[in-house]
Amino acid sequence: MSKYNITVVGLGYVGLSISTLLSQKHKVLALDKDEQRIQLINQRKSPIKDALIESFLSEKQLNLQATKEKELAYKDADFIIISTPTDYDPDSNYFDTSSIESVIKDVLGINKNATIVIKSTIPLGYTEQIRKEFNYQNIFYSPEFLREGSALYDNLHPSRIIVGDTTESAKIFASLLAEAAEKKDVETIYCSSTEAEATKLFSNTFLAMRVAFFNEL
Fold this sequence. Notes:
Helix content is about 45%, strand content about 15%. The protein is an alpha/beta fold and about 220 residues long.
């Protein structure tokens, strides 16, 4: 497979785990605002608690660099993965997606050839809305199903890969995830981004219901 330049925006559990995963095979620039987090990653130390990420950073030959510089991060990227926080407020029933829109605006000002992949949790119909708002079709949603503390393990052994598009870029992105995984023959599902968003939200809701049910018991 060809080598790709990949930028990951936001270095929480999702962003750092996927940065670590993909930097095994490709050049990954990890963009974040936190200077301490950037320094730790460039020193090959994990800023979050995840034993496997700590092991990969210290022991593997990863093509991974963290930076605060947007121009450097975006200008040569083939894929830009957005994993910024979108905190949900249950009182207002609202996801704060402003960080995603800010990233897309910056990306389109620097590199209009990049494929933008949203990994943050977003409301139903958001990807279609944002494509129209920015008049840019090369954006799709691909959900993550990760646990805190074992995010990299879950990326290496995914239950499934879901990509909310059927374009050639979407197929390449799915192949990047499958290639980097340790688990073989991972089921890949291509659908619309709205269907992918629904899958993520339904999964989150179902898991929350299970926790609430067993707490009640």
